[in-house]
């Protein structure tokens, strides 16, 4: 019984820490992306922004939820070794070079793509997120930056 109570206490502390980290990240994202000077506590910034722009606020919360997981003690470095054929690698680039991919895997995918283009430029000349070769397949979830993405990938 004592061990269970101690475990529950640790879980509650971790949950509280996670919420604080998430809220601090959300407030930071709001301040970074706002056109106006935002003063006040994180809670005040979040409350005022949430009322003004619910959709963007929800995107910030989703991003903060992903990023907050890396701050907690259970996050650690992972080394991965994998093999791909060209078709599978292009599928990986289609999804993971996309602006909607989680930022860390997106960065890895972009670095991998640069290396692949150096080694086999003909095979990978059209590689990257799907929107460089046509309409964005994300529908309503699109980042809305297809033109910038095409410029970034030289299309």
Measured as a percent range, the helix fraction is 55-70%
Radius of gyration over alpha carbons?
A: 20 Å
Q: Cα distance, first to last residue? A: 63 Å
User: What portion of the residues fall into strands of 2 or more residues?
Assistant: under 5%
SSE class: mainly alpha
Biggest sheet features:
none
Shape descriptor reads flat
Order of helices and strands: HHHHHHH
Report the mean per-residue pLDDT as an integer: 86
Low-confidence residue ranges: none
Summarize this structure as a short list of keywords or feature phrases.
155 residues; single chain; mainly alpha
Structure overview:
- The protein is mostly helical and 155 residues long.
- It contains 7 helices and no strands.
- It has helices at 2-33, 42-52, 54-68, 86-96, 103-119, 121-124, 146-152.
Sequence-ordered SSE layout with sheet pairings:
Elements: H1 2-33, H2 42-52, H3 54-68, H4 86-96, H5 103-119, H6 121-124, H7 146-152
Write a compact overview of the structure shown.
This protein is mainly α and 155 residues long. The chain has 7 helices and no strands.
């Amino acid at each position: 019984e004592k061990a269970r109570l101690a475990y529950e206490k640790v879980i509650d502390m971790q949950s509280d820490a996670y919420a604080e980290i998430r809220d601090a990240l959300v407030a930071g994202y709001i301040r970074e992306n706002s056109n106006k000077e935002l003063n006040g506590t994180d809670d005040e910034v979040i409350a005022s922004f949430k009322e003004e722009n619910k959709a963007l606020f929800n995107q910030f919360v989703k991003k903060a939820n992903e990023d907050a997981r890396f701050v907690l003690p259970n996050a650690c470095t992972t080394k991965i070794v994998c093999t791909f054929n060209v078709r599978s690698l292009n599928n990986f680039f289609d999804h993971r070079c996309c602006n909607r991919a989680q930022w860390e895997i997106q960065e890895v995918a972009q670095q991998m793509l640069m290396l692949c283009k150096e080694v086999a430029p003909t095979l990978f000349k059209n590689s990257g997120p799907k929107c460089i070769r046509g309409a964005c397949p994300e529908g309503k979830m699109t980042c809305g930056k297809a033109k910038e993405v095409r410029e970034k990938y030289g299309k």
